[in-house]
Design brief:
alpha+beta, elongated, Jelly Rolls, disordered N terminus
Length: 456
């Protein structure tokens, strides 16, 4: 704790004053204002953090800094025109009321970070953000794509701060990544993270792996996209309003969607991705670009003693030789929905074949021709505990005959699957500097570890 408290003054400082992401004392720092005056971009003309070179129009200003200013202004206008709240003014911090953007060298560890700065007792905050100064050796297709990604992502954190800044990473990073696609429907960064979600679907949506902000937190953008595809983008405004009113994230979600239906449909949409997409009309318009999800097992008969976590899905592939199919459960599993999906000649998912009841016993699902089928177990609930149950699917499900006493609950496990899935370094270094309480210490801890927005 002493270390965290000692670092708090650095966490408060803007990049021109020191801190984790800051200019060097030898940098020659100046700024330019965007055409409309809504953004002020700070950059170095000489020194360790020198801005990306180039002045194609010969106006004496670096093109990269001008591009950042233009995109910052465009993103702000897009969000406000749609109906999101205006950002909270920083009351002249940085010398103006404009949104301050600082271009510094992250050294490949991350590519940007938003910091809420002046906060009231409701955790409504002003702030600024820091961005990589040249994107050299980063994984973006071009500089403009990188700037579009960072401005839309970090400025959505600023939008969150206009409602309530103290929220969990699965929501904060997931919705900020959702906003990348909201601003630019062709966002490559969004697609990368949406695909990453499908590598860890057995993990509860609201329980990212422990440690520094992980890929999974950003990857929940796929859920937020499903919700807004189903209910409209203005659903997000209503949800943010709920967080501003102090609603718990999950309670606000549960009151605005029908989890028992929507999360199961979300799981089905996620199955119909990659090479499995195309057999049905309903689904993501980008479905061929991501997935398919990882499968727990692929065999001619399935027998698994599995733990199904709340707001999570486990997928299986059944390579069927043809004939009658039986499904068995060794205990009741009322929180879990099981579905069997068929495929066409190209193995694209083309229809739901069965949704057997989640009760102990064995049922006959009928005769199926030889081919590939997909099976999933979904827990669409906000249950406190996961459900551990053994199921069988195949020609003979007698191995899953219920015992005298079955395990229908579990031991109190509420998280997700093992820490699997692709990980990238870093996560948004977001926190507060004047709201007091634990939030200020939390951001100091992140900054102490050198964490910013993840590098792609």
């Amino acid at each position: 704790m002493a270390l965290l408290l000692a670092l708090l003054p650095l966490a408060h400082a803007r990049p021109t004053e020191g801190g984790a992401y800051s200019f060097d004392g030898s940098d020659v720092v100046t700024y330019l204002d965007s055409p409309g005056g809504f953004a002020r971009v700070w950059y170095s003309t000489d020194g360790p953090n020198v801005v990306k070179s180039g002045d194609a129009d010969g106006n004496g200003l670096p093109d990269f800094a001008e591009l950042v200013g233009t995109y910052t202004e465009d993103v702000l206008a897009t969000y406000e025109d749609f109906g999101f709240r205006p950002l909270v003014s920083d009351d002249g911090a940085g010398g103006s009321d404009a949104m301050d953007v600082y271009l510094v060298d992250f050294g490949g560890d991350a590519d940007g970070a938003y910091t809420p700065e002046h906060c009231n007792t409701d955790d409504v905050c002003s702030g600024y953000f820091v961005m990589e100064n040249d994107f050299k050796n980063y994984g973006y297709s071009d500089v403009e794509s990188a700037v579009s990604t960072l401005t839309s992502h970090e400025l959505f954190h600023a939008e969150q701060a206009a409602y309530n800044s103290g929220e969990d990473s699965w929501y904060a990073e997931g919705t900020a990544t959702w906003a990348e696609r909201f601003f630019d429907p062709a966002s490559e960064d969004f697609i990368w993270f949406a695909a990453a979600y499908l590598e860890d679907t057995g993990r509860s949506l609201n329980v990212p792996p422990s440690g520094p902000v992980p890929t999974f937190a950003y990857a929940t953008c796929l859920w937020w996209t499903f919700v807004t595809d189903r209910y409209g983008d203005d659903w997000m405004i209503d949800y943010l309003d709920g967080t501003a009113d102090g609603e718990d994230l999950l309670a606000a979600l549960d009151s605005r969607v029908d989890l028992s239906t929507d999360f199961v449909d979300f799981a089905a949409w996620n199955l119909r991705t990659g090479k499995l997409a195309g057999g049905m009309d309903e689904g993501y318009d980008f479905a061929p670009e991501i997935g398919p999800p990882l499968f727990e097992d692929s065999a001619s008969a399935l027998d698994d003693d599995q733990r199904f976590y709340p707001l999570a899905t486990t997928y299986y592939k059944l390579k069927w030789d043809g004939g009658d199919v039986q499904f068995g459960l060794d205990a009741d599993a009322p929180d879990v929905v099981f579905q069997l999906w068929g495929t066409d000649a190209d193995e694209q998912v083309n229809g739901l074949l069965a949704e057997p009841e989640s009760v102990a016993g064995i049922v006959d699902l009928g005769e199926l021709p030889a081919g590939t089928y997909y099976f999933m177990g979904v827990n669409p609930t906000l249950a406190d505990n996961s459900t551990k149950v053994r199921f069988c699917l195949g020609a003979d499900a007698s191995a899953c005959t219920p015992a005298d006493t079955g395990d229908t609950g579990d031991t109190g496990d509420t998280g997700g699957s093992g820490d699997t899935g692709p990980e990238k370094p870093g996560g948004c270094a977001c926190g507060t500097t004047e709201s007091g309480g634990a939030a200020g210490v939390w951001i100091a801890g992140l900054l102490a570890m050198g964490l910013g927005r993840r590098r792609r």
